[in-house]
Amino acid sequence: MRIKLWGVRGSLPTPMGVQEYQTILGHALAHAQNDFRANPSITAEQLYEGIPAQYRRVIGGDTTCVEVDYRGTCIVMDMGTGARRAGLSIAKRALRDIYVLITHTHWDHIQGFPFFAPAYDPGVTIHFYSCIPDLHERFIRQQHPHYHHVKFEDLPCKTTFTYVEQGEQFEIGNLQMEAQPLIHPGGSASYKIRKENQTFVFATDTEFYGPDLSMLVKKYDQFFHGADLLIIDAQYSLTEAEQKRGWGHTAMTIAVDCAMHWDIERLGLTHHEPAHSDETIRELFARAHEYLEANNPHRHMMELTLAREGEEYFL
Predict the structure, then answer these.
(1) Is residue 47 part of a domain?
(2) Which tens digits make up the pLDDT trace of 74-92?
(3) Is residue 196 over pLDDT 90?
(4) 83 near 76, Cβ under 8 Å?
(5) 210-242, pLDDT tens digit by residue?
(6) Is there a domain that residue 43 lies in?
(7) What integer pLDDT is reported at residue 297 of this predicted model?
């Protein structure tokens, strides 16, 4: 099973600003200059590899979209702005059936669909699954002529809509699926995907915080426990989590704490705050990593990763 992240930002698209880009470029050039002075015969490839990782790769500015590929079965989880590039990649593979799981319909999770290339291919069928009874009508409203130049019902592709009860188990291809409700204003769903003895859980837009945190961790243990890979909402710092209580998002450190209790093997932290620069996100990740090392010294060390556009995981 291959899992690829096409969009990792939360709330709204966040393209890197000119000032932030210039700062990163300046640091990269300074490192390259020092290496060149030390070794004038150094190659461009060697110069690039010598630049610290944080200046060679950005977090990314597109909103949530995750692709799961297993033996030709293509599942797309949410249709944020990352769906545009996901669609271009999927279209090259000439797939006839694409399965889309929608966690909820806040705009940052569906706004990329009108730019999803396979939707304009009459030979493609897009199969939507969600815990939202009126999902079809919501997509129609998003593409009303007031907001988009192509109506949903005028798209060349074929579409089907399958309603999934929260807590229900179902199958897509040879994959076993399960939906679970999350803590988020207006509702959201997590999806668990199993193949053979491997489990992937996607849990964006959820809030684990407050005086009932221990109870919530226990409540969700059965669903999350022992997952080989969990990609979870980690939008806030601890201060922001307190300031924005009830907004439906989790602090990075708390996401790590929950994952430790659930015995997660690999944890990906995603849905990054749009007000945070790449540097701020990396700083929060460093604190989360320090927390993991300080609070989990005698147990199996969970692998902790920071979600970035283009990141791939394999199960």
Answers:
(1) yes
(2) 999 999 999 999 999 999 9
(3) no
(4) yes
(5) 999 999 999 999 999 999 999 999 999 999 999
(6) yes
(7) 67
Domain range for residue 45?
18-55
What is the per-residue pLDDT for 231? 98
Which own/partner contact pairs does 70-76 have at CB distance under 8 Å and 24+ positions apart? 70/1, 70/2, 70/173, 70/174, 70/175, 70/195, 71/173, 71/174, 73/99, 73/172, 73/173, 73/174, 73/175, 74/98, 74/99, 75/99, 75/100, 75/101, 75/172, 75/175, 75/193, 76/100, 76/101
pLDDT of residue 4: 98
| Phi and psi at residue 299, to the nearest 5° | -110, 175
Q: Do 252 and 234 contact (CB within 8 A), yes or no?
A: yes
101 with 129, same domain: the answer is yes
What is d(CA 15, CA 275) in angstroms, rounded to the nearest whole number? 11
Radius of gyration of the chain (CA): 20
